[in-house]
Amino acid sequence: MPSHEIVGNLHMHTVYSDGEGTHADIAQAALRAGLDFVVVTDHNVWVDGIPPYQYGGDGKQRVLVITGEEIHDQALQPQSNHLLAFNTRRELAACAHDPQRLLDEVNASGGLSFLAHPFDYESKLINYQPIHWRRWDVTGFTGIELWNYMSEFVRLVTTPAAAIHYATDPALGISGPNPETLAKWDELTASGQRVVAIGNSDAHATTVKKFGRTAVIFPYEHCFRAVNTHLIADEPLNGNYEHDCDLIFTAIRNGHCFVGYDAPASTRGFRFSAQAMRGTAIMGDEVNGEGGVTLQVSAPKPAEIRMVHNGRVVAKREADTHLMHIATKPGAYRVEASIEHKGAKRGWIFSNPIYVR
């Protein structure tokens, strides 16, 4: 089974759209945060010619910088239907007005597509209107952005005092994916669809000027130490661009990944697997359920671990690093883990499902 863990972030913006940093700024922040790769997703522009690898000061540590795109119809009011497109290697913003055509073009290019912040939050204080995904009639998307770090912060910005409080220490309010997004994901996978979940920062490194001072709110490095996507791949990255991109996007397409909130504690080392009469599987895989399937979870530190079957919790362990469950019914089985951090329970790990058929 795949065993090499690769950690990255797949949603961020630079000066080419509404971000305030360069690709080099992002790469250095990713290196400091210990990421293996980033996918830069500027709005409606596919930026070509960016050096794919950037290195730390010692010349040994490297990060892979991949170009992606966040595509949407800029004329649509209110704004909705933002799509993250990966590995298309071409500009597709001209298709933004028709989400189904856009998805078809992404697939024709051999790319992957994820519905960005499908259930967004509103903040009247900063005049932010939610950017939901509204076209649930479309088909062919790879998955959804289960946890968007900046979107969750928006829900906390209810008063000036709250804005200052949570901007100073976001971990006091960050708690997990939007419940509507979780519910929709469970609905889709319970219906038999394979829907891959990823988690991202949506980092912009926005500069704010107040009271004669200038500060960067949520710098890239801060965001890259928070919500990330952890991949389980067949082999490690080796510094060859084609090899490494193929390894990353194959793992994502197969759902061999989990969403980890790495700020309270590193989620590296989490594993979710299945053993059955006819083989083994990891998250994202299908397994034949004849004769029962043993599902096994291993977390890197004690946590509340929950096994979720088609949206319903079927097993739970408190303050433990392991959980085992015998699956006797078909459906999508996924794992959630929570830990105590700064006085409250926080969502920590959200695995992709193992599909028992």
Looking at this protein, list some descriptive labels.
357 residues, alpha+beta, TIM Barrel, 14-stranded mixed sheet, 36% strand, globular
Describe this structure as you would to a colleague.
This protein is an alpha+beta fold and 357 residues long. The chain folds into 2 domains: 4-262, TIM Barrel (Alpha-Beta Barrel), CATH 3.20.20; 269-331, no CATH class. The chain is built from 7 helices and 21 strands. Strands 1, 2, 3, 4, 12, 13, 14, 15, 16, 17, 18, 19, 20 and 21 form a 14-stranded mixed sheet that branches. It is globular, with a radius of gyration of 20 Å. The chain starts with a strand and ends with a strand.
- Strand residues, percent: 35-45%
Low-pLDDT regions:
none
How many domains comprise the coordinates? Answer: 2
CATH topology of the largest domain: TIM Barrel
Number of strands: 21
Q: Which CATH architecture of the largest domain would you pick? A: Alpha-Beta Barrel
Summarize the structure.
This protein has 357 residues and is α+β, with helices and mostly antiparallel strands. It has helices at residues 23-33, 99-108, 149-156, 160-168, 179-190, 220-224, 241-253; strands at residues 4-9, 37-40, 53-55, 62-67, 69-71, 83-86, 112-115, 143-148, 196-200, 206-210, 213-217, 227-233, 257-261, 271-276, 279-282, 286-287, 293-309, 312-327, 331-341, 344-351, 354-356. The strands form 3 sheets. Strands 1, 2, 3, 4, 12, 13, 14, 15, 16, 17, 18, 19, 20 and 21 form a 14-stranded mixed β-sheet that branches. A 5-stranded mixed β-sheet has the order 5-6-7-8-9.
